[in-house]
């Protein structure tokens, strides 16, 4: 597949997003991966092992829906976690994966398989949520170096709960998706804000784990 104008425009947009996310401390030490949909069945994803705050045009690979590379290079080790979202949700155009301190610590400190968020005005940043009184659930999947196995668990969950706004991987980070890159960045910012609020509450009330389902 040739790297066309759409490929390079997408690469440029993702590189700028990576710089911003790195400045916020959400993609330390080459962690994280990003993608944008190129067509109904293809996407551009970050190359594996690159520093996500210093991405250049050669640090991106086009892949098909099964994660097979269509251009030269090695796509992210977690490509399948991106392509499965494009396959499941025909309307989405962007996926961001980050390793913030908040998502890493909170997913480790939460014993159950779900983090329940309620009472926060910022929940309204998620589509379909119109009140702070709503309960929004972020599932937490156990980390697994076999990505296909983790992707299967994520897919089963999302098939049952298609309104899920994002998910956490225990001790690892967060995956977030949306219509386009700008709205995905906004959503990620909302998720990170809410995770920080939950962590602060736990610091204020140690022993009282709020927002946690066993
Ligand atoms: C630097 S450790 C993080 C990796 O193991 C992985 O979780 C990650 O997010 C980046 O992997 P990558 O293959 O570069 O997309
Ligand atoms: Zn990761």
UniProtKB/TrEMBL annotation:
<dbReference type="GO" id="GO:0008270">
    <property type="term" value="F:zinc ion binding"/>
</dbReference>
<dbReference type="InterPro" id="IPR017714">
    <property type="entry name" value="MethylthioRu-1-P_deHdtase_MtnB"/>
</dbReference>
<keyword id="KW-0479">Metal-binding</keyword>
<comment type="pathway">
    <text>Amino-acid biosynthesis; L-methionine biosynthesis via salvage pathway; L-methionine from S-methyl-5-thio-alpha-D-ribose 1-phosphate: step 2/6.</text>
</comment>
<dbReference type="InterPro" id="IPR001303">
    <property type="entry name" value="Aldolase_II/adducin_N"/>
</dbReference>
<feature type="binding site">
    <location>
        <position position="97"/>
    </location>
    <ligand>
        <name>Zn(2+)</name>
    </ligand>
</feature>
<keyword id="KW-0028">Amino-acid biosynthesis</keyword>
<dbReference type="GO" id="GO:0019509">
    <property type="term" value="P:L-methionine salvage from methylthioadenosine"/>
</dbReference>
<keyword id="KW-0862">Zinc</keyword>
<dbReference type="GO" id="GO:0005996">
    <property type="term" value="P:monosaccharide metabolic process"/>
</dbReference>
<comment type="similarity">
    <text>Belongs to the aldolase class II family. MtnB subfamily.</text>
</comment>
<dbReference type="Pfam" id="PF00596">
    <property type="entry name" value="Aldolase_II"/>
</dbReference>
<keyword id="KW-0486">Methionine biosynthesis</keyword>
<feature type="domain" description="Class II aldolase/adducin N-terminal">
    <location>
        <begin position="12"/>
        <end position="199"/>
    </location>
</feature>
<dbReference type="InterPro" id="IPR036409">
    <property type="entry name" value="Aldolase_II/adducin_N_sf"/>
</dbReference>
<dbReference type="GO" id="GO:0046570">
    <property type="term" value="F:methylthioribulose 1-phosphate dehydratase activity"/>
</dbReference>
<keyword id="KW-0456">Lyase</keyword>
<dbReference type="GO" id="GO:0005737">
    <property type="term" value="C:cytoplasm"/>
</dbReference>
<comment type="function">
    <text>Catalyzes the dehydration of methylthioribulose-1-phosphate (MTRu-1-P) into 2,3-diketo-5-methylthiopentyl-1-phosphate (DK-MTP-1-P).</text>
</comment>
<protein>
    <recommendedName>
        <fullName>Methylthioribulose-1-phosphate dehydratase</fullName>
        <ecNumber>4.2.1.109</ecNumber>
    </recommendedName>
</protein>
<feature type="binding site">
    <location>
        <position position="99"/>
    </location>
    <ligand>
        <name>Zn(2+)</name>
    </ligand>
</feature>
């Amino acid at each position: 597949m040739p790297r066309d104008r759409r490929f390079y425009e997408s690469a440029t947009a993702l590189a700028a997003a990576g710089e911003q996310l790195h400045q916020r401390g959400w993609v330390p030490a080459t962690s994280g991966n990003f993608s944008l949909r190129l067509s109904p069945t293809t996407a551009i994803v970050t190359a594996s092992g690159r520093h996500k705050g210093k991405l250049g045009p050669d640090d991106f690979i086009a892949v098909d829906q099964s994660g097979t590379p269509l251009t030269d290079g090695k796509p992210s080790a977690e490509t399948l976690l991106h392509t499965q979202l494009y396959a499941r949700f025909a309307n989405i155009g962007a996926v961001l994966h980050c390793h913030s301190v908040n998502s890493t610590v909170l997913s480790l400190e939460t014993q159950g398989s779900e983090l329940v968020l309620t009472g926060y005005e910022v929940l309204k940043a998620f589509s379909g949520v119109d009140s702070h009184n709503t309960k929004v659930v972020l599932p937490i999947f156990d980390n697994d170096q076999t990505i296909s196995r983790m992707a299967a668990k994520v897919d089963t969950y999302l098939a049952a709960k298609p309104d899920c706004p994002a998910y956490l991987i225990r001790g690892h980070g967060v995956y977030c998706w949306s219509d386009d890159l700008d709205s995905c960045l906004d959503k990620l910012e909302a998720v990170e804000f809410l995770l920080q609020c939950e962590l602060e509450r736990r610091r204020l009330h140690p022993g009282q784990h709020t927002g946690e389902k066993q």
